[in-house]
Design brief:
This protein is of the alpha/beta class. The protein is built from 14 helices and ten strands. It has a single domain, classed as Rossmann fold (3-Layer(aba) Sandwich), CATH 3.40.50.1820.
Length: 356
């Protein structure tokens, strides 16, 4: 269909964006799957830091969530403040492509027990650091919690979770757009969101629907940037992961796919310092669900991204990373927390950009 091809080409030309990463690393996991991790080298004139930072995107997203044109993109922003910053494409997303037969069965537990373990090992080996700090948005923050619950985070020294709910007390109100599709998990191989999102990206945010309000505060985002994000970052969700989230939403639980490991229960008493960030207008990660982490983590600190903390507006789920002033209001609070838990290097390390 030549008209469809022309439309796709025009949309790609308008909304496609390139990476701002300095390096791209291909890292093998224990099961042989190779994942891609982008590296953003610290600026030479910035304050040197000791520990690298690993950023983990959320459900149905890839590394673009942290790698966006200025003034957005938390990863390059942190690199500008001296942090050796890395962003992972979890298996089956972004540049970490899988054969279709393997993609269908991917679960959250694969991200936690395979991808993130390999990523932490790789970061420590390449940077020479004794540990890392982890920043996770939405499901990315849940992945950090799960690592702690599985006691796989011995080299994680501090963390930040952004809009990461420990369960879904509101049930399917959390994801009203997907409610009609909840039964598809029994028959479908997954939710093929990527090709659909690229087709409809020009229409994104044109209608301020109730469902849309659960994900962002429309007045707090640049619509052109949001459309670029939708075009490039939205990823399809495999059946294994879809079924796992369906159970979490149906039962308000947070556990492994086989039901053997209750991540929420096992998180209790973990001593890792974690900055837990919630947003007043986040309909996906409701504040009461986000705050569930606080009594479980004795060294956690809570940050409300909103007017009560002196910010210009009350944030939503996506605008924690892409709000108009997120780089002025949210990012500095993250950097302060990371800096507080990073021992400043005594001498500047010169990092070489390698040709990949």
């Amino acid at each position: 269909m030549p008209l469809l091809g022309l439309y796709k080409a025009l949309v790609r030309q308008r909304y496609e964006t390139g990476t701002r990463a300095d390096e791209i690393h291909r890292v093998p996991c224990a099961d042989g799957v190779r994942i891609a991790i982008k590296r953003f080298l610290p600026h030479r004139d910035s304050e040197p830091r000791r520990l690298p930072v690993l950023c983990v995107p959320g459900l149905g997203a890839d590394s673009t969530n942290f790698d966006a044109p200025e003034p957005y993109g938390l990863a390059p922003w942190l690199a500008g403040r001296g942090f050796d910053t890395w962003v992972i494409d979890l298996r089956g997303t972004g540049m970490s492509k899988l054969p279709y037969r393997k993609w269908v069965g991917v679960t959250f537990d694969d991200f936690v027990g395979l991808d993130l373990v390999a990523a932490v090992d790789h970061l420590c080996a390449k940077s020479g650091a004794p540990g890392v700090m982890v920043v996770g948005h939405s499901m990315g923050g849940l992945a950090l919690y799960a690592m702690l619950a599985r006691q796989q985070a011995t080299r994680v020294r501090a963390g930040v979770t952004l809009g990461s709910p420990l369960g879904f007390p509101q049930g399917w109100e959390a994801m009203p757009l997907l409610r009609p599709l909840k039964r598809l998990g029994d028959i479908a191989p997954g939710l093929h969101l990527e090709p659909l999102s690229q087709l409809v990206a020009p229409l994104a945010l044109r209608f301020n629907s109730a469902a849309l309000k659960r994900f962002l505060v429309l007045d707090n985002v640049d619509t052109r940037m949001a459309r670029r994000l939708m075009y490039r970052a939205v990823q399809s969700i495999p059946r294994g992961l879809m079924l796992q989230f369906r159970e979490w939403i149906d039962r308000d639980v947070f556990r492994s796919a086989d039901g053997e490991l209750d991540y929420r229960a096992r998180l209790a008493g973990c001593a890792l310092p974690v900055l837990v960030v919630g947003a007043p207008h986040d309909g996906l990660a409701r504040l009461d669900a986000v705050r569930r982490a606080l009594p479980l983590l004795p060294h956690a600190r809570f940050l409300l991204a909103g007017r009560d903390e002196g910010m210009s507006t009350d944030y939503g789920h996506i605008d924690l990373l892409f709000g108009r002033r997120a780089h002025q209001e949210v990012f500095p609070r993250i950097a302060d927390w990371l800096g507080e838990h990073d021992a400043v290097a005594t001498s500047t390390r010169r990092l070489r950009v390698v040709a990949l």
